[in-house]
Amino acid sequence: MSDLETFHAETRAWLEANCPAAMRQPVRGEGDIVWGGRKAQLSPDQKAWLDAMASRGWTVPDWPKDYGGGGLSPEQTKILRQEMARLGCRNPLNSFGISMLGPALLKYGTEEQKKRFLPEIARGEIRWCQGYSEPNAGSDLAGLQTSAEDKGDHFLVNGQKVWTSYADKADWIFCLVRTSKESKHNGISFLLFDMESPGVSTKPILLISGYSPFCETFFDNVEVPKDQLVGELNKGWDVAKYLLGHEREMISGMGLGGGGLGSGGPAALAEEAKRAVGVDADGRLADPLLRAQIALFEVRERAFRAMSEKFMDELKYGKTHPAQPSMMKYYGTELNKARYELVMAAGGSDALEWESEGSEGGTKARAWLRTKANSIEGGTSEIQLNIIAKRILELPGA
Amino acid sequence: MALFLTDEQTMLRDTARQFVNETAPVSHMRSLRDAKEPAGFSRDLWKQFAEMGFTSILIPEDEGGLGLGHVEAGVVLEEIGRNLTPSSFLSTAVGAVTALKTGAADLRQIWFPRIAAGEAVAALAIDEGAKHRPAQTALRAERSGNGFRLTGAKTFVPLGHVADLIVVAARTGGSPGEENGITLFAVEKGAAGLTATPERLADASIAARLQLDGVEVDADAVIGEVDQGWAGLTRILSAGRAGAAAELLGVGGGAMDMTIGYLRERKQFGVPIGSFQALQHRAAHLYSEMEVARAAVLKAQQLLDADDPNAERAALVAKAMAGLAVTLAVQEGVQMHGGIGMTDEYDIGFYMKRGRVLAELFGDANWAADQLARMSGY
């Protein structure tokens, strides 16, 4: 057996032995997703699965072992992911620390910062949130105004962020701040600080889904130690853009259902629709137009699944265009919105119920509405198209 | 296996790209069309393809071929698509070779060397109506003496009027609509009772209508098993769909490159029209669709090469996705070129025509999506 085949066999055996049965059930809602952090309340199975994976560094399989990772090669990482998918293993830990901050720290952090922050991300001990958007800095993110004043041994941060995902549940924040007004892009710095620091407050924003996953976050004379600056002073935009690429990769995963509702794929959607409209004499979905829409969606979903695999492979081998995450983000989020339009069409009036027990508190309708943010957060679809046009297609004056 | 071309496959692509672009660019197709060349393709070019080794890519090494796979065949097909090169590559080097590989050694020994040498071209005779419905095969093959007698009609047979070998799907049992009872036959050019009528299509390529009036073939003309040809036919069609999808990628990629180039150069209101966001967003959307199609095609090719049970489904996805993406590419191509895009003198219209023909071949996107729905149980 080759080394890879041995790894494959051992991985399969280890997952079968260590992944609790409950952690092989499909994720049904937000409550089934483990984000980690000081305030996390994990079920015994969730905790066992997280600890087992973290002990091998497999919450972040391709990070170096020194920083809490698994030190796996691209081929081994792919095998691990495929085996987890085959067994239906849930992701043991989902976090912005893993998908966004970690890669940025690996590239821009000092050795001391990597040793300090990465292992606790890998173990799910600290939950991070992202301080990027501001009331007047959305698509024009570099127009941000939250200031960090140099006070000798610390920065003094003042200002406001908005659309901070789970700020009220997070322990730390990675935050873009203005450290110079001389230049728009070259006056931004990237800071890390504890959300329990004096002067930090959050206020949840009620969304159309009835949920409040986002907050307004306020900073009133927050003192941040100097060693929590990532990258050079006034060069935070480079870190910010690099991190955005990773954020877009993460969001593009929603194109495949993101482990959420409807991730059973088009066949599950069709089953749902069959319950609502019945079947014809050949056992096919009796609404031929809905069936056609689901079938054409299936084409795109399967094709995008291949695209995701190709993109991840190219990324691991350094073969991808630096702006390709924008394409993935654009396509994946538009696909996910299309998926949830079909979830609603297949569910009919049952899917419209907002509070009933049968609808599990309006799970479908709320998830459908939540997806509408997919093509806004992390840079709108229109911003992604601008980036593709400018950086990949090299169109003029974009 | 990683889902991108290996170094060897990338080298083959570079070789094929240079060779096809130099020997058979779009002007080659245009001149064949203008000359009303009755064969519809160049036999000289086919010989050159053989000399490059292209025609024997899928022929096993121990039978005189290169023993490579559908990824490699797709690499060549994409360049054929990009240059709109009239060629029998898809029918012969992919379709017929795949068909013969499902059959007995004697037929392979006859045809593989001739295909490898560029001496023979082949055609696939599957469709009987205007839409691809392989299970509806009705052309009858009745036992007669030591062999069979074939009676019926076929349509949309690319280069069927000049093909030395025609792979014919016929019904030896069951009724139209059933998968059982289909048998594949190797019919040779000039067989008594075979009439091939060439029809020029919108893209200037030629597909034949075939009439078979009691064409007699020997029992050893059967490819595979009598009545059990559906599995073989499915393999041929999966290979054909992945291949047509690869050629489509070339057509769409060529149209897109041409269009992006035009957006950079064409000036109106004193600026390049590519600086207008209304066009930039459409171009970026098109790029995204083409990228996703490219991934789907490579996935299908790799699964075919691995003999994976999911290959049939992946080939349907590839064909449908490439059809959808390339249809967008050629439509945006003509529209963004404005008036010049409507002229015969300019090449972009050729891409639209070729894309339309390939989108129909071996089942269009709607048909493929319908098949996927059936396979997924709805």
From TrEMBL, chain A:
Tell me which residues make up the Acyl-CoA dehydrogenase/oxidase C-terminal domain: 234-393
| PANTHER family (alphabetical) | ACYL-COA DEHYDROGENASE, ACYL-COA DEHYDROGENASE FADE29
Tell me what organism the protein belongs to: Sphingomonas changbaiensis NBRC 104936
What this protein needs as a cofactor is: FAD
**Name assigned to this protein:** Putative acyl-CoA dehydrogenase
Question: This protein's superkingdom?
Answer: Bacteria
- Domain named Acyl-CoA oxidase/dehydrogenase middle: which ranges? 129-222
> Which keywords label this protein?
FAD, Flavoprotein, Oxidoreductase
Query: Where does the record place the Acyl-CoA dehydrogenase/oxidase N-terminal domain?
Result: 47-125
> How is this protein annotated for GO cellular component?
plasma membrane
An example Gene Ontology molecular-function term: flavin adenine dinucleotide binding
UniProtKB/TrEMBL annotation, chain B:
What keywords tag this UniProt record?
FAD, Flavoprotein, Oxidoreductase
Database matches in InterPro entries:
Acyl-CoA_Oxase/DH_mid-dom (IPR006091), Acyl-CoA_Oxase/DH_mid-dom_sf (IPR046373), AcylCo_DH-like_C (IPR036250), AcylCo_DH/oxidase_C (IPR009075), AcylCoA_DH/ox_N (IPR013786), AcylCoA_DH/ox_N_sf (IPR037069), AcylCoA_DH/oxidase_NM_dom_sf (IPR009100)
Acyl-CoA dehydrogenase/oxidase C-terminal domain boundaries: 227-374
Task: Please report the stretch or stretches of sequence annotated as the Acyl-CoA oxidase/dehydrogenase middle domain.
Answer: 129-200
- List cofactor names only: FAD
Q: Could you tell me the superkingdom of the organism this chain comes from?
A: Bacteria
Outline the extent of the Acyl-CoA dehydrogenase/oxidase N-terminal domain: 6-119
Pfam families of this UniProt entry? Acyl-CoA_dh_1, Acyl-CoA_dh_M, Acyl-CoA_dh_N
Record's keyword annotation contains Oxidoreductase:
yes
Q: Which GO terms describe its molecular function?
A: acyl-CoA dehydrogenase activity; flavin adenine dinucleotide binding
Family from the record: Belongs to the acyl-CoA dehydrogenase family.
- In Swiss-Prot or TrEMBL terms, this protein is called Putative acyl-CoA dehydrogenase
Q: What is the lineage of its organism?
A: Bacteria, Pseudomonadati, Pseudomonadota, Alphaproteobacteria, Sphingomonadales
